[in-house]
């Protein structure tokens, strides 16, 4: 079975990578889908994020990386995929994710289900937005939270 793991991934963190690999292991094949959101100004362009993710998952034969825009359910339909994977770090994520899951089920007339994986506790405090904020002041402070390619990219971007 195939699943989509969607997100902004601006930037991808070790928490996202853990969810992607665990998701791919139970689903068989996973597409990590980077949202191209015209309403947000990201730190990394969509192409930069896709390139970083492709480097990170280069040796994961069951993980592909793509960009998508528009509604997630339309992208899922286009790919003929019925499962979405999302990670839950705690109750804030659950509160945010519940309506997304319900919306995506409704928008797809029950065709697309969301499967939630709980975060690995040691990674549950990592968020892309905090990583970006801390990196602005001290890029080395986030070295254990992102893969080395992302650390280098952050160093270049924030120079
Ligand atoms: O990493 P994020 O920013 O928490 O990911 C949010 C994402 C990309 C999963 C969500 O914003 C999304 O699916 N956007 C696509 C537009 C859409 O389908 N919206 C309606 C249902 S949530």
Keywords:
159 residues; alpha/beta; five-stranded parallel β-sheet; 6 helices; 19% strand; binds 4'-phosphopantetheine
Strands, count:
5
Kindly report how far apart the N and C termini lie: 42 Å
Order of strands in the sheet with most strands: 3-2-1-4-5
What integer value in Å does the Rg equal?
15 Å
Low-pLDDT regions: none
Helix-strand topology string: EHEHEHEHEHH
Number of helices: 6
Compute the average pLDDT: 97
Instruction: Describe the main β-sheet briefly.
Output: 5 strands, parallel
Structural class: alpha/beta
Shape: globular
Portion in helices: 40-55%
Overview of this protein structure:
With 159 residues, the protein is of the alpha/beta class. It is 45% helix and 19% strand. It has helices at 14-27, 46-56, 72-79, 91-107, 128-137, 148-158, and strands spanning 2-7, 29-35, 63-68, 83-88, 113-118. It has a five-stranded parallel β-sheet with strand order 3-2-1-4-5, sandwiched between helices. The model has no long low-confidence stretch (mean pLDDT 97). Residues 6-8, 35, 71-72, 100, 103-104 line the site of 4'-phosphopantetheine. Residues 6-8, 35, 71-72, 100, 103-104 line the site of 4'-phosphopantetheine (PNS).
